[in-house]
TrEMBL record:
Primase C-terminal domain residues: 182-247
Protein name: Replication initiation protein
Record-linked InterPro entries: Plasmid_replicase_bac (IPR004322), PriCT_1 (IPR014820)
Cited Pfam families: PriCT_1, Replicase
């Protein structure tokens, strides 16, 4: 008689091996702020940075309910089995899933995977009824000596495997409706479209970067406080750097050339709409 093998359970050593940050933010008291420390010292703190600044290696959801563990592991459920859950006060907890392939969030990466990651994260948050204001920056450290950890599956997940019936088809287009990781994507999309027409290849890089920073901070100031409010200063600066470098690298046309191109595209859309209206009217009148 054979028995099926039980799924492998994540261990502290495996979690440590998958943790990519070399100099993460960490703290024992969130009210005192967080600071960067060497990896091994940081992993003795109660809270650590969930992923490196350049990569998202894990999805973490903050569940502010007394039954966080039950919500995470109850079956059947809409979401995959978590990699770990760290319980906090009154049963609240952080629920995490390791990604098979970390998602790049610098100008070296593509925005589509980051946008998809934001949608997947929002879907998991909805499945667990997690905190909309949680950004995923700091997480309860499962390696801390006093951590109350429930270890889950040892497997890692692709973004597609983390998709649920709650995963939205698209992120909110308006900044005041964005939450969590979606705020990063919203700020990137909104600010970059605002500055495309302001770029000039002859503008000094320092001046260009300063202009982009101003637009990013303007977008950041519009995020709703109920959904987490503005992003930290460092994240705004990082997004501004990504936009300014990407545009400088890929845009060779001047401001006037860009505006002329936009004008031609706009005129083409208007002309096409007018032709459709004329064709519709002709069909109604003459039955063509």
């Amino acid at each position: 008689m054979t028995t099926s093998a039980l799924p492998a359970v994540l261990t502290p050593n495996t979690w440590r091996d998958r943790y990519l940050s070399r100099y993460p933010l960490a703290t024992d008291n969130l009210d005192m702020g967080a600071w960067r420390e060497q990896r091994e010292r940081a992993l003795r703190r109660q809270y650590v940075e969930a992923s490196p600044r350049a990569l998202v290696a894990a999805v973490v959801i903050d569940v502010d309910h007394p039954d966080a563990v039950l919500r995470a592991y109850e079956r059947p459920s809409d979401h995959p089995v978590p990699s770990w859950v760290v319980e906090g006060n009154q049963g609240h907890g952080h629920v995490g899933w390791w990604l098979t392939a970390p998602v790049c969030r610098t100008d070296a990466g593509k925005v589509d995977p980051l946008r998809y990651l934001a949608r997947v994260t929002e879907g998991l948050r909805r499945s667990l009824d997690g905190d909309q204001a949680y950004t995923g920056l700091l997480t309860r450290n499962p390696l801390h000596a006093d951590a109350d950890v429930i270890w889950g599956t040892d497997r890692t997940y692709s973004l597609r495997e983390l998709g649920t019936i709650h995963t939205p088809r698209q992120l909110p287009r308006r900044p005041e409706r964005s939450s969590g990781l979606g705020r990063n994507v919203t700020m990137f999309d909104t600010a970059r479209h605002e500055v495309y027409g302001l770029h000039d290849p002859d503008m000094p890089m320092e001046e260009w970067h300063r202009l982009v920073v101003q637009h990013c901070h303007a977008v950041n100031s519009t995020f709703d406080d109920v959904l987490g409010g503005p992003l930290p200063f460092s994240e705004v600066q990082a997004t501004a750097s990504s936009i300014s470098r990407w545009v400088r690298r890929n845009f060779t046309m001047t401001k006037h050339e860009y505006q002329a191109m936009r004008g031609r595209k706009g005129a083409a859309v208007v002309n096409a709409r007018r032709r459709d209206e004329r064709d519709t009217l002709r069909a109604e009148v003459f039955g063509e």
